[in-house]
Amino acid sequence: MKKIITAAVIMSMAALFTACEEISQEPLNKTDSSAYAPTEEVTEYVEETVSFTEYVAKVPEINTTEASMTIEAEDCKLNGSLYTDEQRKGFSGNGYVTGFYGGSADYLVIPADIPSSQHYNITVCVAADSNVTSSVNVNDRNIGEFVIDGEDERFVRVTFYGVYMDEGEALIQINQGSDNFEIDYIEINNNDNIYENDFEIQTEPVAPEASNETKKLLKYLNDNFGKKIITGQYASNYKNTELELIYKKTGKYPAIRFGDIGGYAQGSIPDESEIKAAKDWNEKGGIVGFMWYWNSPSSDSSIYAKDTKFSLKSAMTDEDISQMGIAEIQDLYKQGKITKECLKLVEDIDAVSEGFSELAEEGIPILWRPLHESGGGWYWWGADGEEAYQWLYDLMYDRMTGYHKLDNLIWIWNGQSEDYMVDSSKYDIAAIDIYMGPNMVYGSRSEQYQWLKQVTDSGKILAIGECSSIPGIDEMIRDNSLWSFFGLWYGDYLTSSSGDTADVYTTEEDLIKMYNAENSITLESYAGVYGHRN
């Protein structure tokens, strides 16, 4: 049963966290890099400083109380096409609720008398005949999605951990699903674990010969984890348009500039603009982060599995190629011992490593988040399953740290699913991408924080790799879920077509609160760590 429960929760996380395929999200670096003059100064720091009052988080008083209740679904208010049935075996009470045929009116409302303002685990006992995705709201706030594995005909339990509820009546709503499913009961128990800071995090980078600068950055992340959140922003191009807008609105710059190294792959002329922008940001005292929108090394090159026939499974080999020179690997291909797909992957990894070596030579550490959202299956590096993904991750890690001896990488696992977990000795930080719909309260995403903490056995720094909105500083402190850092995506998630704040996913008020909070770290409070800017 535990294995089934875990699988259900994992899939629910993938469904919620990686909504970026459905929400508008385009690769970075759409601006022509040829316009980047080598001597051009990227970020203009305005002399006139915008001043805001420091924001102190508002946290309610938590009254921990033992609580446990089970509410039978058939005793609750049924809406739309819902009805009570008894055909599936294994239910409790007098039956279960079914009839979730997909209409917006098909939802179940469960009233619960909450004895104390604190955090709770909410468990839903469900079953289905096919794979079904549904979601749960608490007092009109979405707390996440879950997926039912239709191959198992039994009722299974799916738990959302660490949900904060105020004392008094709470309304828990199970929404319509992608197909019909059954609900047997809902269980609510107080959660004491959320108040424990029981992390045991290794302070040294996993890379065997990490540079002093890399060690210092990871130590800084460790020292602040659970105390303060480091602000981060994705830049759509080398001009840092998004970062400048944040400064204009808040008086502060994000500490982390996230970019995309994708221009180095596919035998193209290396896109130096992102490397130059990273050097400039480091010179200003900021933290450099990189992801990789890796276009498949094929004639139908694309990041999306649906748009390319590239097969990662075809690239897999038992040959130990990670420490071989490229000429030796090419010989293996000529001998038919590896496939063309395998060779092309190595060539791309080598090209990106060459770009990163420029930063390593200047002692610039990188928050490196490769092969993101693999568990979602929409990117080619995740579409062939966890075994193929893990093989590729291992190849990349071993080749970059061993063969290329890159000593400036802090490795971030962003697989989005426990099934896609890699060896803990090959990543420093566990990150998750969390996208919400427009005009939704983002909150702390404590439920996902608790899930990721469990997946990593409380042994890693936890971060939000990508987000649609600024996380709530009040809620993160209340929920004891202060992520190490966040990376706000660009485009509509921040800016409007006129270049101002869009106020759809992230409002100007959200920005001002976060960037001026006593528990947040901006460029201004971080700069100077490496002596670049005081």
Q: Quickly give the structural class.
A: alpha/beta
Largest sheet geometry:
8 strands, parallel
Radius of gyration: 24 Å
Shape call: globular
Strand content: 15-25%
Give unreliable regions as ranges: 1-24, 29-47
* Structure annotation, total helices: 13
How many beta-strand segments?
21
- Separation of the first and last Cα atoms: 55 Å
Helix content: 25-40%
- The whole-number mean of residue pLDDT values reads 89
Give me the side-by-side strand order of the main sheet.
Answer: 13-14-15-16-17-18-19-20
Describe the structure.
- Strand 19 (461-467), helix 11 (473-478) and strand 20 form a beta-alpha-beta unit.
- The longest helix is centred in the middle third of the chain and has 22 residues, at 340-361.
- The protein has 534 residues and is an alpha/beta fold.
- Residues 1-24 and 29-47 have low confidence and may be disordered.
- The strands form five sheets. Strands 13-14-15-16-17-18-19-20 form an eight-stranded parallel sheet.
- 49% of the residues are buried.
- It contains 13 helices and 21 strands.
